[in-house]
Amino acid sequence: MLPRLLPLVQQIADRFPDINIAVRFAGAARISAINGPLTLTSADAAEAARILGVHHVVDLHTEG
Questions:
Q1: 28 lies in a domain?
Q2: Origin, by domain of life (predicted)?
């Protein structure tokens, strides 16, 4: 399983505190070779926006 992505998002927020827009890959894409999502789940995408404190969000690849 892939590591949780939200700790990485927190590292980005800490390093770049003035982020105003986030482009997120969401939709919990999966492949059979990996046991876990390759992109953010819906819940993680919402939490990522909160962590980043952004004003605008662009979601990509939200449906298969």
A1: yes
A2: Bacteria
Domain count, the chain: 1
**For 10-48, how does the pLDDT look when each residue is reduced to its tens digit (9 = 90+)?**
999 999 999 999 998 888 878 888 877 778 888 888 899
Could you tell me if residue 1 is inside a domain?
no
pLDDT band for 62, please (50, 70, 90 cuts): low
59 CB burial (10 A radius; 0-12, 13-18, 19+): middle
